[in-house]
Amino acid sequence: MAEFRKFRLPLGVYLLSFALLAVAQVVMREQPILMAERFWAGAGWIQIAVIAFYGALLAYKMQDPLKAPRWRRLSWTLFTLVFFAQLALGLAGADQFLMSGKLHLPIPMMILGGPVYRLQLSFMSFLFLSTLVLTGPAWCSHLCYFGALDQLASDAAPRDNKATARNNKTGATCDNMTGAASNNKTSAAPAKPAKRTKRTRYFAFKFKRQVRWSIVLLVIVAALALRWLNVPVLYATLGALAFGLTGLAVMLLLSRKYGSMIHCSLYCPIGTLVRLGKKINPFRMTLSPDCTLCMKCSSVCPYDALNPEDIKNKKPGSGCTYCGDCLSVCDAQAIHYRFFGLSPKHARQLYLLLTISLHCLFLALAKI
């Protein structure tokens, strides 16, 4: 019986992914949306089976909190590679790899700027809102075609830049982040003060909230100004392209330097909207009183959601995307998924079921 339990989540992901993609296959029969179906009639069902099996494998691996961070990164990067590879092939002349004949810049900012410029909601608007309702902030840790690039950049940071605390053999508490020695709950030995790394200096930056909302306001005002001034579409597109290239520069120059996903957590206006909009979803991430303030979770959180102040307050910051990376290092098992009356284990399994199934749907269907 215990062996069977390991396959319940993978089976659920397989069935849900298969069902969702089957609906797309049947409804879009006249205008196939699945890639395989566009090349060979009936091959879409083979693609559905393969994608669903992939989702089941991913669920099997990610149900182990220790393995989840690695497989989340691999699956997210795979989605980004497939998405941009299809775009490149489409631009090279293979129209089957494009969603339609209308191209738009694959920059998350366009999810906000595009509808404001046109004064009309788009398909991407409804897609983004639906992910907020179903999986809260998973857009920023599993589903965004751009975010995986920021993850890769922050992961490439020098090791010392990622570590927000240096525990001695017995561990250090949150007070170490300010240089004061304190005791771990499980030890009375004094701890060494933490080394002040580049990442802790980013934590100390006090105006992150103002920067985030200033960028959101800038995008809205710029889009409205471009519309009201009847600026040619070419120049509006160039402005959006400049915004996207600046985002890439933020990844290469800042995310890689500080070991934190600064593009997603500070620069991207969609990331800022996710911080606000995720509250409509009932999933939550919490820290229990069992937390020993060891600060290990802070060293692996790429979203600036577990800085010392957040951990002292026993509540992840607003930037938490429920990615679950922190669970892999929490020896006290004090970080929990919550969903109404479900146990933390079952809440996490439900979250993985929905998130991985949506990831499979995006992998199979997302195109420009």
Overview of the structural elements:
With 368 residues, the protein is an all-alpha fold. The chain has a domain at 1-96 and 341-368. 57% of the residues lie in helices and 2% in strands. The chain has 17 helices and two strands. It has a two-stranded antiparallel sheet with strand order 1-2. α2 (8-27) runs antiparallel to α4 (43-62), α2 runs parallel beside α17 and α4 (43-62) packs antiparallel against α17. The longest helix has 26 residues, at 233-258. The chain starts with a helix and ends with a helix. Residues 164-196 have low confidence and may be disordered.
What is the element layout, followed by pairings?
Layout: H1 2-5, H2 8-27, H3 35-39, H4 43-62, H5 68-91, H6 110-118, H7 123-135, H8 147-155, H9 159-162, H10 198-203, H11 208-228, H12 233-258, H13 262-267, H14 269-277, E1 284-287, H15 296-300, H16 308-312, E2 335-338, H17 344-365
Antiparallel strand pairs: 1-2
Helix pairs in contact: 2-4, 2-17, 4-17, 5-8, 6-11, 8-12, 11-14
